[in-house]
Specification:
By secondary structure, this protein is of the alpha/beta class. The chain is 38% helix and 13% strand. It has 18 helices and 13 strands. The relative contact order is 0.10.
């Protein structure tokens, strides 16, 4: 019942203007924030339909003590989700009215001349075309298992493994209980859109991480060698941090910062579940961290994913900012420039990845250009992942070195990634600065994008 109560509280908070969806979810205290986020998002998406069902079935009139927000969550999961998971009187109440609700749903479909539940969204709140085509990406947590064992586990659960994808079109064609190995990232599995794995044993045990493909790019491209000292500057909720730990094989040191205490607590839970060690969490604004502190004298890699407009997220729902104003973009870009410039002050820094989940040039290419102009020739943009189809907008010479991602071209959320490396005086500087993915300095079992992954030895810890 805790899940439904938490979801109802988030809905009430949205309606009363207490905050946005993400902030309310992370501040809810509910331990499984992604499960909560998914339930609230889908309830909001179906909200117009749910209101009609509640009115038609007169559920709130029949059950005076049932709050509207809780009723929406219960009816969503009863009719459109995976079925009610809670116990107690609310589950019994919802099931008592199930026949009446199902009859009202059938009448609604007849009135709108549709046969599928999803088609009911079209008249008032169309389902996002972008969201509906982005697959479910599953990153294998190599701190606990390996790709082969995860594939075997899913096959035992009735999923059909189709091998390694050869193109984005193969990902687009996925359906049913079929899945593929991603064509670009060697530890990423791809399932059809809307595949729900939040209750899967592999997820609850930390053997897999549910993470969008574009969100996996920053750690993959930073690619620190095992034993490196790394900063994750704006780390919560921690998926990128756990990815860094997996790349480091838990060898070395990660310093992870976030200013929000509740987000830090959530991140601590996520990292513990993922088996991350050698990571120091700090509730601290990264801008207040002293680059001259001896504690950070060996930091050679920084992952910087600062606050942004979130305009690239395809699963946006009511309660989140849809089209930031010019003033809002300028304020965000100002903060992003300050934090990027600050990150480049760490004396031993060799490589930095700057990323956002924004589609706006003001937060992406313009920020990188402004900071590089400030820093002179100390750092240079480098070209990584030459086979990646989406490149930076031509805002300045060299912007094509950056990566962009989009639902249409890469079947991911909208994203931006730039890789900066220190440039030593007297070193050769090729005009196009090509550093291909296979030339990454990280000596790990990483493959050239598009190549078959190397066989790994099976880990002792096997999911049964």
């Amino acid at each position: 019942m805790a899940l439904y109560s938490a979801a109802a509280a988030v809905l009430a908070g949205l309606e009363s203007g207490q905050g946005g969806l993400k902030s309310l979810v992370y501040n809810s205290g509910f331990p499984h924030v992604r499960q909560l986020y998914a339930l609230v998002s889908e309830t909001l998406r179906y909200a117009p339909v749910l209101e009609k069902l509640l009115d038609g079935a007169a559920l709130l009139q029949a059950e005076k003590k049932l709050q509207p927000q809780l009723a929406k969550v219960l009816v969503y999961d009863l009719l459109f989700g995976k079925g009610l998971k809670c116990g107690g009187r609310w589950k019994a109440l919802a099931r008592r009215h199930r026949a009446r609700l199902e009859a009202e749903l059938a009448r609604l479909k007849v009135r709108h001349k549709v046969s599928r539940n999803e088609d009911l969204l079209a008249p008032e709140q169309p389902a996002s075309a972008a969201a509906s085509q982005v697959p479910r990406y599953v990153r294998v947590n190599t701190l606990k298992t390996c790709v082969d064992d995860v594939i075997d586990f899913f096959k035992r659960q009735g999923y059909s493994y189709l091998g390694k994808a050869a193109s984005v079109e193969e990902l687009r064609a996925l359906s049913g209980k079929k899945f593929l190995l991603d064509l670009h990232l060697p530890e990423l599995l791809v399932f059809p859109p809307q595949t729900d794995l939040h209750d899967n044993l592999l997820y609850t045990s930390g053997h897999i991480i549910l993470q969008d493909k574009a969100s996996c790019l920053p750690a993959f491209l930073l690619s620190p060698a095992a034993g490196s000292h790394v900063i994750d500057a704006c780390a919560a909720p921690g998926n990128k941090t756990s990815h860094l730990a997996a790349i480091l094989k838990n060898k070395g040191q990660i310093f992870a910062f976030d200013v929000d205490p509740k987000r830090v607590a959530t991140m601590n839970t996520l990292l513990a579940r993922a088996g991350v060690t050698g990571c120091q969490l700090a509730q601290q604004d990264f801008l207040t961290v002293d680059p001259g502190d001896p504690k950070y004298s060996r930091v050679t890699h920084i992952l910087l994913d600062p606050s942004c407009s979130g305009s690239g997220m395809v699963t946006r729902v009511p309660g989140e900012e849809l089209a930031p104003s010019t003033e809002r973009l300028q304020a965000l870009a100002g903060f992003q420039r300050r934090v990027l410039s600050h990150a480049l002050n760490f004396p031993a820094l060799q490589r930095l990845v700057y990323s956002t989940c924004s589609v706006h040039r003001e937060e992406n290419e313009d920020v990188v250009q402004a900071v590089l102009q400030e820093r002179g020739s100390a750092f240079r943009l480098v070209t990584t992942f030459p086979s990646w189809p989406c490149r930076g907008l031509a805002a300045f010479p060299g912007a094509e070195s950056c990566l962009r991602a989009s639902p249409a071209e890469t079947l991911t959320h909208g994203f931006f990634v730039a890789v900066l490396e220190r440039f030593e005086e007297g070193a050769d500087a090729p005009s196009s600065l090509p550093v291909a993915a296979e030339e990454n300095p990280q000596p790990r079992e990483q493959t050239e994008p598009g190549a078959a992954p190397k066989k790994r030895k099976r880990k002792k810890q096997r999911v049964k």
